Amino acid sequence: MRQAHTVEQVRAAEAALMAKLPEGTLMQRAAAGLAVAVSNFLGGTYGARVVLLIGSGDNGGDALYAGARLARRGAQVTAVLLSSHAHPGGLAALLAVGGRVGATSDIVSADVVLDGIVGIGGRPGLRPDALAAVQLAEQYGVPIVAVDTPSGVDVDTGETPEPHVRAALTVTFGTHKICHLVDPAASACGPVHLIDIGLDLPPAEVQSLQAADVRALYPIPHGESDKYSRGVLGLMVGSPQYPGAAVIATTGALAGPIGMVRYVGPDAVAAAVREAHPEVVGDGRVQAWTIGSGLGDELDVPRIRELLDADEPVVLDADGLKALDDSGDHVDVLATPHAGELARLLGVERATVEAERLKYARLAAERFDVTVLLKGATTVIAGPDGEVRVNTNATPWLATAGAGDVLAGLCGSLLAAGLTPLDAAAVGAYLHASAANLSSSGGPTTAIAVAQALPEATRLLLS
Ligand SMILES: NC(=O)C1=CN([C@@H]2O[C@H](COP(=O)(O)OP(=O)(O)OC[C@H]3O[C@@H](n4cnc5c(N)ncnc54)[C@H](OP(=O)(O)O)[C@@H]3O)[C@@H](O)[C@H]2O)[C@@H](O)CC1
Ligand SMILES: [K+]
């Protein structure tokens, strides 16, 4: 499990640990890990030209002490001081081993720039000197390694309202922060490398499942299982306008853990579904529903509201989201909007949702009393009680027509097999992305190819 803590939680854990340790211990742990990560990033240290961008706080201190360690191993290290009070101990350590203070223009010939401008104490945005330095690095193609967080992003929300660093690597300490997992900031981090500095932290509200977590949650049949006990999913999706949505969502559902799929819809669409999947049967008892993908003119709001009020959990997708209202208890509903659909539900602009994904996913979950899976490069899943899961393993090739229908079918399958909406969403998003990675292999793919890769992605996960 990847946990992302708030700045307040990190500060509290840091204070508790610092009270037990000699002064400066945590910064030395951070700097040691940072120096090794930078050395690995460069593929060696000797002769490397390293420029440090140094702000006024401990983030700059980390960069200076790491710079001193790199200088001791033969790097040419230059500190660019962006504030009148750089960390005194760190600066002295660097100068004592042959590092020097230089100017922004030194960036032009650097192999790497360390962003020690601000960390968890920073406000969003970059001040003019820092912005000029960062732009110079970008202009000359010099990679930036962010110390703890890319400076300029909003650490606790993942928002990027102002200019910020775009890092090739982020080296963080103690735990992940929310900006490492939630877009748009997450996309500015590059790979995130976590250094353990011994912090003792409470469980985080924002978590990201890793392979072992998904494996532990996946419903695996056993010797006593039959097709009913494995779970039966009803699909109310597709229409004469969009018959493909029904076929694609069904393919996703069949590639999940359940034993049977029932399709409920117009005869012509049902025929198309059975042609692709002869094993699909008609109306009857189900343990969960997937409703909404490609319903078009078939949208029957009163019928959907009946199903939302019934006992079986529901995945509500695409057109079906129009049936959602903010009255009543919908804790067993998993809504799967993209940013535009979520914006319509909440009466705000799409761009606003894109810029503040965590905030609006949480707001919708609370307002409609549902679990919300907000699709995107990183998927944000918010439960009605404030818990958040983020999925980060997707490929941009997954942004293709029908991919959402696969996810809706798969998540329904996971719900029917007994997972909670939050777990079904997190496991579904993870496997959907894994299947996309398999079928894409770095090139184009299609929704059907993603759905067809799901069994293999699941096999690889479980083996
Ligand atoms: N917690 C831990 O466990 C550990 C933490 N460690 C490290 O400490 C870091 C946190 O250090 P920190 O608290 O000194 O804050 P930090 O982010 O360096 O600077 C804040 C100062 O910068 C300024 N400023 C604000 N916004 C700005 C902006 N946009 N652009 C420019 N300047 C801006 C503002 O001061 P001002 O200039 O306004 O007076 C503010 O006071 C943390 O990220 C990690 O790297 C590790 O050593 C080990 C363990
Ligand atoms: K930083």
Write the layout of secondary structure elements.
Layout: E1 2-5, H1 7-18, H2 25-42, E2 49-54, H3 58-72, E3 76-81, H4 88-96, E4 100-101, E5 112-116, H5 128-139, E6 144-147, E7 169-173, E8 176-177, H6 178-181, E9 192-195, E10 206-208, H7 211-217, E11 232-236, H8 243-254, E12 260-263, H9 267-276, E13 288-291, H10 301-309, E14 314-317, E15 333-336, H11 339-346, H12 350-355, H13 357-368, E16 371-374, E17 379-382, E18 388-391, H14 403-416, H15 421-440, H16 447-462
Helix pairs in contact: 2-3, 3-4, 8-9, 8-14, 8-16, 11-13, 14-15, 14-16, 15-16
The structure holds ligand NPW and potassium ion.
Potassium ion binds next to strand 5 and strand 6.
Protein name: Bifunctional NAD(P)H-hydrate repair enzyme
EC number: 4.2.1.136, 5.1.99.6
GO biological process, one term: metabolite repair
Short structural description:
By secondary structure, the protein is an alpha/beta fold.
Keywords:
11-stranded mixed sheet; binds ligand NPW; UDP-N-acetylmuramoyl-L-alanine:D-glutamate ligase; 463 residues; alpha/beta; Rossmann fold; 7-stranded parallel sheet; binds potassium ion; 2 domains
Descriptive notes:
- Helices cover 40% and strands 16% of the residues.
- It has 463 residues and is α/β, with parallel strands linked by helices.
- It has two domains: 2-208, 3-Layer(aba) Sandwich (Rossmann fold); 211-462, Ribokinase (UDP-N-acetylmuramoyl-L-alanine:D-glutamate ligase), CATH 3.40.1190.20.
- The strands form two sheets. An eleven-stranded mixed sheet has the order 8-1-10-18-17-16-15-14-13-11-12, with helices on both faces. Strands 4-3-2-5-6-7-9 form a seven-stranded parallel sheet, with helices on both faces.
- Helix 2 (25-42) crosses helix 3 (58-72), helix 14 crosses helix 15 (421-440) and helix 15 crosses helix 16.
- The longest helix is centred in the C-terminal third of the chain and has 20 residues, at 421-440.
- 55% of the residues are buried.
- Potassium ion (K) binds next to strand 5 and strand 6.
